[in-house]
Amino acid sequence: MNAQELVQKHKLLECIQCGMCTGSCPVSRKTNLNIRQYMREVALTGKLTIHPQNELWSCTTCSTCGIRCPKELNPYEFLIDIRSLAVEEGQIAPTIRDALESIFKNGNPWGRIRSKRSEWAQDLNVKHISQGAEILYFVGCTPAYDPRVQSVAKSLVKCFEKAGVHFGILGDEENCCGSEVYGMGEKGLFEFLVEENMKIFKKYNVKQVVTSCPHAFHAFKNRYEQKSFEVLHYTQMLANLVENGKLTFSKEVSKKVIYHDPCFLGKQNGIYDEPRKVIESVPGVTPLEFDRSRSRSLCCEGGGGRMWIDVPGERLSEIRISDAVESGAEILATACPFCLLTLEDAVKTTGFEGKIQILDVAELLALAL
């Protein structure tokens, strides 16, 4: 894609140079990333420059710039296309390259073999989707492989079973959803994953998908350009189950709980109320709110491939932890595997271990069953 095509595709000449995108960008404070200037440079000079790694790869694709833009442009989508050029020219960090290669070879970015994808469920009575299940639970790469996040998948299974949900999984046939592949600019690999995943969904006549991860939810809902199945994030399903009296609790969790809005669930898809309703339904919980919540939520820096490349400077997740502790929260709950890992890591780096606990919403609910 040349400069002129980028100018037309992203309507760069409509930019009024207000600077709202750069001013609202959560990572601009720690890098020299100036999205407004970058867009202006391409629009006016017609030159495509791949900016330094710590600038181009600092973007988390959280979409704050798009939400704040008065002209309704999406600057982060422009940056993703610039990343595509960097990928084509091999100007990427080895960790990004390895993650993309692993996705192509093994269907996940973590360098794990496909035959171990369903090991997390070996002690559970979880059916394969082919065994007459009505709903596909799409586990996702991180909940399937990461030892910490496997607890989220197990907790969600516990909630589904308690509520009598007839669900199944794809087991070792499950592939990466491709959300972060798209965010890293590898559009060719993303299209390959879409094709492969749609084949599998069609094979088992999948009509409804529930995801652990907001990134998979966003990809299936907004990137796949499909109408053959409905997709829900698990907090939407749990909110419905609680509201309809199908999911009830037998224990109290007498804790002050503050909720962190994942960008791909909130900013990208407007899902703010359901996770809060679920948390508030847990007996004994005292819900708290961040000053920066909902559409103003502070990004954890896990999206857009940032799980595989670090950018120097204070981490936004560390600011988030400090704010949570200051609020008096005992538990910080979130609903995204990337948020869970970045926030839990930030507890250690800020020295707040023992003062606050990081839980996924599904884990919080499982405590009360």
Give structural notes.
- The chain has 369 residues and is of the alpha/beta class.
- The chain has three domains: 3-88, Orthogonal Bundle (Fumarate Reductase Iron-sulfur Protein, Chain B, domain 2); 110-240, Rossmann fold, CATH 3.40.50; 248-368, Rossmann fold.
- 44% of the residues lie in helices and 8% in strands.
- It has 17 helices and eight strands.
- A four-stranded parallel β-sheet has the order 2-1-3-4. A four-stranded parallel β-sheet has the order 6-5-7-8, sandwiched between helices.
- The longest helix is centred in the middle third of the chain and has 17 residues, at 187-203.
- It is globular.
- The mean pLDDT is 96.
Provide a quick synopsis of the model:
Helix content is 44%, strand content 8%.
Order of helices and strands: HHHHHHHEHHEHHEHEHEHEHEHEH
> Using only CA atoms, what is the Rg?
20 Å
Mean pLDDT: 96
Could you list the spans in which at least 5 consecutive residues all have pLDDT below 50?
none
Distance between the termini: 53 Å
What does the main sheet amount to? 4 strands, parallel
Helix vs. strand class: alpha/beta
So, CATH architecture of the largest domain?
3-Layer(aba) Sandwich
Principal-axes geometry comes out as globular
Task: Give the topology, please.
Elements: H1 3-9, H2 20-24, H3 35-45, H4 53-56, H5 64-68, H6 75-88, H7 94-106, E1 135-138, H8 141-145, H9 150-163, E2 167-168, H10 179-183, H11 187-203, E3 208-211, H12 214-223, E4 230-233, H13 234-243, E5 256-259, H14 273-281, E6 286-288, H15 316-326, E7 331-334, H16 337-350, E8 357-360, H17 361-368
Parallel strand pairs: 1-2, 1-3, 3-4, 5-6, 5-7, 7-8
